TrEMBL record, chain A:
Position of the signal peptide: none
Protease in keyword set: no
Gene encoding the protein: acpA
Family membership noted in the UniProt record: Belongs to the acyl carrier protein (ACP) family.
Pathway the protein takes part in: Lipid metabolism; fatty acid biosynthesis
All residue ranges annotated as the Carrier domain in the record: 1-77
Protein name: Acyl carrier protein
InterPro entries reported for this sequence: ACP (IPR003231), ACP-like_sf (IPR036736), PP-bd_ACP (IPR009081)
Organism field: [Clostridium] ultunense Esp
Automatic annotation (TrEMBL), chain B:
Protein name (record): 3-oxoacyl-[acyl-carrier-protein] synthase 2
Record SMART domains: PKS_KS
Acyltransferase among keywords: yes
Name of the coding gene: fabF
Catalytic activity, EC: 2.3.1.179
Length: 78, 412
């Protein structure tokens, strides 16, 4: 499984999203997936568990889309 | 003062979801009590409860919304959905600033609290969900109902332990009487069959430990009673100003004409041995409705199946009704449903108004051994048919909170 797929699965499971086909690197969690700030925090916590990393709030604030998240995580785990 | 009628019923109970299923179980004397399945009860003195086993949140609300709600809020949402449908209420056609939501819950989101507290202990503060607080707080049932249905009048929760629902109904009744709202979604909800609440109630010695016979464990007024059986669910009613109901051609189940609320000022959990608070709550409801006690046909008792409640509620009834206490029909439907704590008054108000409408008094099941301190007519084991014009529903909560409502058959 690619890192994108792992991130995508976490988002789908955390937010219980049905329309999984439409999620791409360009998708924004809050703008496109109808998530609010509380959902976003939950997603970050689930990602921290999945990749065993810490995502400080100031880093999470700059993510614009899923691509940003995937690139950030890849930088952290490599 | 405006007249207040009941025009929609939403029952989410261990003996049936929906008005008809609930009522059919009630008058047939069906028990909803069984072994607790939600967690392992091996180390607990009590292994029985009245769980709702056929509940799917998706039947009543969006799956994504349900994810952000504790069980007690999901039950309240389901009860509301059923009550609005039952009352044929088209909210989009009504002035939603004149509609309110007042929902009682004795405990709130205990299941969420326990889950998140485990995370805190096992994995530290950063693993506690951002949804923890908004899911746990006990006002979130009315909060979510107002958001999902776009209801913009007064909305709040009432927390008076096992009297929560009856206070909620009573306060809603007063708001409509005074013209503050035209219609209020009210009643109560509870989802607290959880490890720590079972442990806490067990430590208090409040629960029945008749584990070998679950369906016989809730036996209000019976001499062999040994505690209440914890239940869960929601009882939601639509209270509506009479002319508002008539204008939209609503089906009217009955009228609410009185409410009494008092305090024991005695002890955190034990009822006043003189039963003065419970007696005065009934008297105030009668006075509020301007009805002499001799007119009351039926009392849906709080009747928890604990030693003290049943003995002292009986004493309260005798003090409030004098010689008429022996003519009354009384029953405790908790013998079937278990004790829904903050939702008890909601489902019992539904039982009482249906008893009035149908002319049927649901029984107190498991009544086998008379107790000299409980010597009234508790409608033992089988229903009785009786024309009911006036009935009272009682709720008495830890903290010494007492509430009674007076219901009347609807007559123009």
């Amino acid at each position: 499984m690619t890192n994108f797929e792992r991130v995508k699965n976490i988002i789908i499971n955390t937010l219980e999203i049905d329309e999984v086909a439409s999620i791409t690197m360009g998708t924004s969690i809050m703008d496109d997936l109808d998530a609010d700030s509380l959902d976003a925090v939950e997603v970050m916590m689930a990602l921290e568990d999945e990749f065993d990393i810490e995502i400080p709030d100031e880093d999470a604030e700059i993510f614009k889309n899923i691509g940003d998240i995937v690139r950030y995580i890849e930088e952290k785990i490599n | 003062m405006k007249r207040v009628v009941i025009t929609g019923l939403g029952a989410v109970t261990p003996i049936g979801i929906g008005r008809d299923k609930y009522w059919n179980s009630l008058f047939r004397g069906k028990s909803g009590i069984d072994y607790i399945t939600r967690f392992d009860t091996e180390k607990y003195d009590t292994k029985i409860g009245a769980e709702i086993k056929d509940f799917s949140p998706e039947d009543f609300m969006d799956r994504k919304e349900a994810r952000r709600m504790d069980r007690f809020t999901q039950y309240a949402m389901a009860g509301t959905s059923l009550a609005l449908e039952d009352g044929d209420i088209k909210l989009e056609k009504l002035d939603r600033e004149r509609i309110g939501v007042v929902i009682g819950s004795g405990i709130g989101g205990m299941e969420t609290l326990e889950k998140e507290h485990s995370k805190l202990l096992e994995r530290g503060p950063k693993r506690v969900s951002p949804l923890f607080i908004p899911m746990m707080i006990s006002n979130m049932a009315p909060g979510q109902i107002s958001m999902v249905y776009g209801i913009k009048g007064p909305s709040f929760a009432i927390t008076t332990a096992c009297a929560s629902s009856t206070h909620a109904i009573g306060e809603s009744f007063r708001m409509i009487q005074r013209g503050i709202a035209d219609l209020i979604i009210t009643g109560g909800s509870e989802g607290a069959i959880t490890p720590i609440s079972l442990a806490g109630f067990n430590s208090m010695k409040a629960l029945s430990t008749r584990n070998e016979e679950p369906t016989k464990a809730s036996r209000p007024f019976d001499k062999e009673r040994d505690g209440f059986v914890i239940g869960e669910g929601a009882g939601i009613l639509i209270l509506e100003e009479l002319n508002h109901a008539l204008d939209r051609g609503a089906t009217i189940y009955g009228e609410i004409i009185g409410y009494g609320a008092t305090s024991d000022a005695y002890h955190i959990t034990a009822p006043d041995p003189e039963a003065g608070g419970a007696k005065r709550a009934m008297e105030l409801a009668l006075k509020d409705g301007k009805i002499h006690f001799s007119n009351i046909d039926y009392i849906n008792a709080h009747g928890t199946s604990t030693y003290y409640n049943d003995k002292l509620e009986t004493l309260a009834i005798k003090k409030a009704f004098k010689e008429h206490a022996y003519n009354l029909a009384i029953s405790s439907t908790k013998s079937m449903t278990g004790h829904l704590l903050g939702a008890a008054g909601g489902i019992e108000a539904i039982a009482t108004i249906l008893a009035i409408k149908e002319g049927i008094i649901p029984p107190t099941i498991n009544y086998e051994n008379p107790d000299e301190s409980c010597d009234l007519n508790y409608t033992p084991n089988t229903l009785i048919k009786r024309d009911i014009k006036y009935a009272i529903s009682n709720s008495l909560g830890f903290g010494g909170h007492n509430a009674s409502i007076l219901l009347k058959k609807y007559m123009e």
